[in-house]
Specification:
Structural class: alpha+beta
Shape: globular
Radius of gyration: 17 Å
Helix content: 25-40%
Length: about 130
Amino acid sequence: MRCVTQIVLALTIVAIPQSGHAFRASNGLTVDPVNDAVFEVNDWRGARAPAYWCAAANYAKRELKAGWKDRLFIARTMGRSETSNRGNAVQFTIDPVAAGVTAAGPGRSMESFVVGDNMTLQQANSYCR
């Protein structure tokens, strides 16, 4: 009987949603909300810019239910993660007004992570491999 009780307890613990766990994108990068308008793509392996955009698109599509034509904006350039103790992060938003971000003009480099740089989810998702 004790064994059955332990199994039931273990299954109950596993079934409880674990808060604070990051969303894992298809490319392995993790994404955490910073606030209601901004989320952060974390990397501690030295990923390149396309991987950040891919992870942001994954999160916006799956967790925020954004559409393919919605735009992702850089809300904060590359810097120390605010949501984890792991390496660097770039912050994104799909709501630039709420995040206090002004859209950048055309001709920016995807690699620069300048605040306001943006592209559609569909464009960002094309960087997923």
